[in-house]
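Annex B. Sample input.
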Amino acid sequence: MSYFKYHVFVCTNEREDGACCACLGAGNARAYLKKRCKELGIHGKNQVRINSAGCLDRCAQGPVMVIYPQETWYTYVDSEDLDEIISRHLLGGQIVERLKI
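Annex B, continued. Sample output.
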């Protein structure tokens, strides 16, 4: 069994030469996800881990995150999208098709 039920990698990479996830607010999104998961009591061993990631090489679809073990890739626009990923995927085990890339 995996150490975490879900391991979320949020690209927070910053590039000088063009659009990047960091330029699209990924650092704030990562902090929001971590805060909300802690508030919900689902952050930690055998639950959810939120991590920053370097470039995930999907800049054109950014901002992006990937959730393991399902290898589900998402993009998002705002905290409502992030809340939906938390409620449906991390709490409910369902992929959010409209945000999937």
